[in-house]
UniProtKB/TrEMBL annotation, chain A:
This is Dipeptide transport system ATP-binding protein. CDD domains: ABC_NikE_OppD_transporters. Residues 4-254 form the ABC transporter domain. It is found in: Cell inner membrane. The lineage of its organism: Bacteria, Pseudomonadati, Pseudomonadota, Alphaproteobacteria, Hyphomicrobiales. Keywords: ATP-binding, Cell membrane, Membrane, Nucleotide-binding, Transport. Pfam families: ABC_tran.
UniProtKB/TrEMBL annotation, chain B:
The keyword Transmembrane helix applies. Residues 96-325 form the ABC transmembrane type-1 domain. Its main location: membrane. One of its GO terms (molecular function) is dipeptide transmembrane transporter activity. This is Dipeptide transport system permease protein. The chain crosses the membrane at residues 9-30, 100-123, 135-162, 198-218, 256-282, 302-328. PROSITE patterns: ABC_TM1. One of its GO terms (cellular component) is plasma membrane.
Length: 284, 334
């Protein structure tokens, strides 16, 4: 049984100019201990499909799926209260902008202990000890002192560590990292990715990394899903994707990577391919 | 923190000087003088008028009068009423509790109803509920206070006979002033029915005075909440599995309160200005009515002193709001 299983997920937003389909027929599976990367350009529906799976989209979004299960439980028929017992505890999520993702009015200690207060029976003292332990595990120095700090007193990298610690507070089975390194400096990006991979291996949890950075994919993923304009273009293990991409879009995507450049101007995808050719060449 | 408070207090000095100058000069711009108005219908000979003006020191050059006034202020002397001869400060201390009671009740109602209404409108954005709340708020904000007061008196006092028209408590009750707050004093007096009577007298003026601040607070809360609800940290809070109550009531509201607290602070000035109208309509014996009466009598000392004291109250409230602001918004504190 897969940890997370999604079949034919569709997300539509009601807009002033009629319904807009942001995700169209996405299917995926993640197992425990597996790292799945979802890659695609901006607007390819990577984040939206994951937010839909967690039930975090606004009410203007219409989410449908043939199958949407977590650990064998149907997430669609679940009540909001039941879903809230799973998200934050069994499925955790971290986001792109670490500083903006933390509440500026509360100390980081409050924000991490809050998850423990909601999802566990730990005493106040035990929650604090656990928070210190989590801060240590994500490499935040002086955790006792840091717990009393506000997000604006910390750097972006430190805030992302706090977000990761918060996500891991209840030992989730699945962690969804939505562009976890995009907003960070290159050196910090490497540190955060290494940390994520280390913690994933230690906890044996499933990890979904949403990214547009093929370098991140190559470094982290077991399997890769390529999305374009809300549709799934290709799904493959990481080695075959890079060595023998099947879809025309993935081929074009890889040839547009700066590291594959052989001189001259980098090719872009849209000047080579039309949407119709991309969708026709999709390999699901 | 102490430096912050002292910095704020230092700003008060030029503000006080400005207010004293405005208070001093504006009342003297009005035609007529206290002596003329004191004489009433009787015709006063020009000699007698000059003599009385001299006695009151009002015939001296303006700058000399202003300088005397300022030196008096520095030693804490706000002067004495030209009409009643009572010290301005004593009258203020005597009357201010009535205004304070009315204003406090009004701001409590405005905050207690305005914030939930604004939050509700923001959460239910675009629905009939949002539109109704904002529609009512707009009407409340646009309505002239005196007209609204008269409407309420006509309906509740005249037609239904539920509430009294004017005053602070029924004449049947009499007890010494302890706190100056009729609600508290009536309870302390132990007289049966006194509290209820004080409450019925307080209700209409409070509603009238609370209307504009309530509308402003509701609208400000709604727009602040709408902005905050779109923030990343609200999504994080939901991704933690927190209940909607915690997400909206704690994570979002705490951030939305930052601009709302500023608005509430600014409403204190509006309240005191509104108190002047409200107290006049309901014959509420507070400083608003006192000031209006003094303007009519050209009681220079009372108008000047009263304005200074009201300005002091507003400045103190603003200082408190600034301190609160730092408490709600850690980015200012640290």
């Amino acid at each position: 049984m897969s940890l997370l299983e999604i079949k034919n997920l569709t997300v539509e937003f009601q807009t002033a100019s009629g319904p807009f389909r942001a995700v169209d027929g996405v299917s995926l599976k993640v197992d425990e201990g597996e790292v799945l990367a979802i890659v695609g350009e901006s607007g390819s529906g990577k984040s939206v499909s994951m937010l839909a799976a967690m039930g975090l989209l606004p009410w203007t979004a219409k989410v449908t799926a043939d199958v949407l299960t977590f650990n064998g439980r149907d997430m669609q028929s679940m009540s909001d209260a039941e879903r809230r017992k799973i998200i934050g505890r069994e499925i955790a999520m971290i986001f792109q902008e670490p500083i903006a993702s933390l509440n500026p009015c509360f100390t980081v200690g409050y924000q991490i202990e809050e998850v423990l207060r909601i999802h566990t029976d730990l005493s106040r003292k035990a929650r604090r000890d656990r928070a210190i332990e989590l801060f240590q595990s994500v490499g935040i120095p002086n955790p006792e002192e840091r717990l009393g700090h506000y997000p604006h007193q910390m750097s972006g990298g430190q805030c992302q560590r706090v977000m990761i610690a918060t996500a891991l507070a209840c030992n989730p089975k699945l962690l969804i990292a939505d562009e976890p390194t995009t907003a960070l400096d290159v050196t910090i990006q490497k540190q955060i990715l290494d940390l994520l991979m280390k913690l994933q291996a230690e906890h044996g949890m499933g990890l979904i990394i949403i990214t547009h950075d093929m370098g991140v994919v190559a470094e982290t993923a077991d399997r890769v899903i390529v999305q374009y304009k809300g549709r799934q273009i290709e799904q493959a293990d990481v080695l075959s994707l890079f060595s023998a991409p099947k879809s025309v879009y993935t081929k074009a995507l890889l040839s547009a990577l700066p590291e594959n450049a052989t001189g001259g101007r980098l090719p872009t995808i849209t000047e080579k391919l039309t949407d119709a050719e991309i969708f026709a060449g999709a390999v699901r | 923190m102490l430096r912050f408070i002292f910095g704020r207090l230092a700003v008060l000095i030029p503000t006080f000087l400005g207010v004293s100058l405005i208070a001093f000069s504006f009342i003297r711009l009005l035609p007529g003088d206290p002596v003329m108005l004191m004489s009433g219908e009787r015709v006063m000979s020009p000699e007698r008028h000059t003599e009385l003006m001299h006695q009151l020191g009002l015939d001296r050059p303006m700058y000399a009068q202003y300088f005397d006034y300022l030196t008096g202020l520095l030693s804490g002397d706000f002067g004495s009423s030209i009409v009643t001869k009572r010290p301005v400060l004593d009258d203020f201390i005597n009357l201010f509790p009535a205004t304070l009671e009315l204003s406090l009740c009004a701001i409590i109602i405005a905050v207690a109803l305005g914030i939930p209404a604004g939050v509700l409108a923001a959460v239910k954005r675009g629905t009939w509920l949002d539109q109704s709340i904002m529609g009512v708020a707009l009407v409340g904000y646009s309505m002239p206070i005196f007209w609204w007061g008269l409407l309420l008196i006509i309906f509740f006092s005249g037609y239904l006979g539920w509430t009294p028209v004017s005053g602070r408590i029924s004449l049947m009750y009499f007890f010494p002033q302890v706190t100056g707050f009729m609600l508290i004093d009536s309870l302390l007096s132990g007289q049966a029915g006194a509290f209820k009577s004080a409450l019925t007298y307080l209700i209409l003026p409070t509603v009238v005075l609370a209307t504009i601040p309530l509308a402003v607070i509701a609208r400000q809360t709604r727009s602040a909440m709408l902005e905050v609800l779109g923030e990343d940290f609200v999504r994080t809070a939901r991704a933690k599995g927190l209940s909607p109550f915690r997400v909206i009531g704690i994570h979002a509201l705490r951030n939305a309160m930052i601009p709302v607290i500023t608005t509430i602070g600014l409403q204190v000035g509006v309240l005191l200005a509104g108190a002047i109208l409200t107290e006049t309509i309901f014959s509420w014996p507070g400083i608003g009515k006192w000031m209006v009466d003094s303007v009519f009598k050209r009681d220079y000392a009372v108008v000047q002193g009263g304005l200074m004291l009201i300005a002091a109250v507003i400045m103190i409230v603003n200082l408190v709001v600034d301190l609160l602001y730092g408490w709600v918004n850690p980015r200012i504190r640290h």
